[in-house]
Design goal:
Layout (H helix, E strand, L loop, with lengths): L1 H13 L2 E4 L2 E4 L1 H13 L3 H8 L5 H6 L3 H9 L19 H6 L11 H8 L17 H8 L9 E2 L5 H9 L29 H8 L13 H4 L11 H21 L3 E3 L5 E3 L11 H11 L7 E3 L2 E3 L7 E5 L11 H15 L3 E7 L8 E11 L2 E12 L2 E6 L2 H4 L2 E2 L18 H18 L12 E5 L6 H11 L8 E5 L15 H5 L3 H6 L3 E3 L8 E3 L1
Parallel strand pairs: 3-13, 8-9, 8-14, 9-12, 14-15
Antiparallel strand pairs: 1-2, 4-5, 6-7, 10-11, 11-12, 16-17
């Protein structure tokens, strides 16, 4: 009886281990709770306690050292159970072997095993490609939401060693080596090597040519001064039209001449101003010339200005925007392009998820909801105003909780090339919530509303034009003056997911919209990959 009491006390000390049916499982909930409590306690005593090396198994687990807790328990002397007891497990069970320090292979429990136990099909740790993957409808039935909650990945290390590896270009992930015997034998090619079609070779090696979608989009239709034989794209065509105006501006600035702007104002050039023959500035001048502006360039304060006759409300919907979030070129483009357009006088907003707690973004106190699979998912926004651009961040646990710590590059999956299992539902919600911000969020006293140009960027926001069309079809008064555009930054990642039954209910759109975005193609880009319904 005394030995049984000791065993019971030891099990209580371990805290996050429960012996059920002879199998040891790790209490992930208790471990996460201990981690959160530890993160919230910043007292000096707590810091000193965290710095000390825990002596008990419970202390080790509280500091995240699950492996250390198990090893600590194994090293304890095994109790001798002299008599039967209701509290004592079967000595031959897996649980008894672990507690008694047995090295039997069947009783081994590692942190990797704990992670596998936690990665349920409905958890945030699940990724696309898992055999036990569930649909959004099934996720809704099991956990009450089409989006998983909680942490799905751990933050990347930020210590000195990690920074050194990053500078050296070393990968932070261990890549498992597949034995050569696991690959099928390669077929031996016979005969002459295949030759690429001449049309493909010409595309790769020939002179770049513009792709004209229709006769109304041809250069003569857009630029009457250009001929059909002009082997240039629209940007260079506009630059060619701007050339005479650019030369006149340079000559005038060299002689200190008075330049008269389109509004009648005059300015004196005090120094020579140089203009690029191509680029955005030349395109702007070319557009002004084609619009019939007599003096398309005005010098003011030593700077060349091009009159803008029309100003727009422009909204960029993007899954990342630097410096708040970034994994590559998309985040960088969304940092520069909106700022440049705002400098031209347009009213510009960028909408992105709130992955972390951004110090420059403030709570708007605005609350709304969108329908996802029959449930009203909350919509909440944070806002920042920088360089004449409105930055709006969609605040939802599906984004903010996904990474334990700073999100870094794990916005879409735990590692490169792997998607969180609920990404399709997550970013569908993102698109619908973004439309709420455009329509209803008051910024500067009033919302952007329907007289807006909305630019969707990459696959994460590609459903937004479809939602605009569906809402307009249901209510013609909605989005009646709204224009949408899609801007592709990375064609490798296209947001292809396995087809799911009930997706129309999840997105809250008629089935015809789901049919319009359903294809037979590989989930990963590449013509040799297996085609599936996606």
């Amino acid at each position: 009886r005394q030995s049984a009491n000791k065993l019971r006390e030891r099990r209580r000390d371990l805290g996050t281990m429960a012996i059920e049916g002879g199998v040891v499982t790790l209490g992930i909930t208790e471990q996460v709770a201990a981690t959160k409590a530890r993160a919230g306690d910043t007292s000096a005593a707590a810091i000193a306690k965290a710095a000390a090396k825990p002596a008990t198994a419970a202390g080790k687990i509280a500091t995240g050292d699950v492996a250390g807790a198990i090893e600590h328990e194994r090293k304890k002397p095994a109790p001798t159970i002299k008599g039967p007891s209701d509290d004592a497990p079967d000595p031959k069970s897996k649980a008894a072997m672990l507690v008694s320090g047995s090295t039997a292979k069947a009783a081994a429990v590692t942190p990797a095993t704990a992670k596998a136990l936690a990665a349920a099909p409905t958890s945030a740790m699940a990724i696309t490609g898992d055999k036990t993957l569930v649909t959004a409808v099934e996720r809704q039935q099991k956990i009450g939401s089409v989006m998983a909650s909680g942490a799905g990945a751990m933050a990347e290390p930020v210590g000195p060693k990690a920074k050194a590896k990053a500078k050296a270009g070393a990968s932070t992930f261990a890549v498992a080596k597949t034995p050569a015997s696991a690959y099928p034998a390669a077929a031996v090619a016979t005969g002459p090597p295949p030759a690429a079609p001449a049309s493909v070779i010409d595309i790769v090696t020939g002179t770049p040519q513009p792709v004209l979608e229709s006769s109304s989009n041809s250069l003569p239709a857009k630029l009457p001064s250009m001929t059909t034989s002009t082997p240039v794209g629209p940007a260079r065509a506009y630059a060619k039209v701007a050339a005479p105006a650019l030369r006149q501006a340079v000559a005038a600035s060299a002689g200190g001449a008075v330049l008269v702007g389109s509004d009648g104002a005059t300015s004196v050039a005090k120094k020579t101003v140089e203009f690029g023959a191509e680029g955005p500035a030349a395109v702007a001048v070319g557009r002004a010339v084609e619009a019939g502006v007599a003096n398309p360039i005005t010098l003011k304060g030593g700077k060349a200005l091009v009159p803008i006759g029309k100003k727009y409300q422009i909204v960029f919907v993007t899954s990342e925007v630097a410096p708040f979030s970034k994994t590559g070129g998309l985040g960088e483009a969304m940092d520069g392009l909106p700022t440049a357009l705002a400098a031209f006088g347009h009213r510009v907003m960028v909408i992105s998820p709130r992955y972390d707690q951004y110090k420059d973004a403030w709570d708007t106190s605005f609350w709304s909801s969108v329908n996802m699979a029959g449930k009203e998912e909350k919509v909440h926004f944070y806002h920042s105003y920088k360089q004449k651009v409105d930055y709006v961040f969609i605040d939802h646990d599906g984004f903010l909780e996904r990474v334990e710590g700073m999100s870094g590059s794990k916005l879409y999956g735990p590692e490169w090339g792997k998607d969180y299992a609920d990404n399709q539902a997550r970013f569908a919600y993102f698109c619908k919530a973004a439309l709420v911000a455009v329509k209803d969020l008051p910024l500067g006293g009033f919302p952007y509303g329907h007289q807006t140009v909305i630019v969707a960027n990459d696959w994460h926001s590609s459903l937004l034009p479809m939602f605009v069309h569906a809402q307009r079809a249901a209510d013609p008064s909605m989005w009646k003056d709204t224009k949408t555009a899609f801007l592709c930054h990375n064609a490798v990642f296209q947001g292809r997911f396995n087809y799911e039954e009930g997706l129309a209910d999840v997105f809250d759109v008629p089935q015809e919209y789901i049919d319009s975005i359903t294809f037979m193609m590989p989930l990963k880009v590449g013509k040799y990959n297996k085609k599936v319904k996606c």
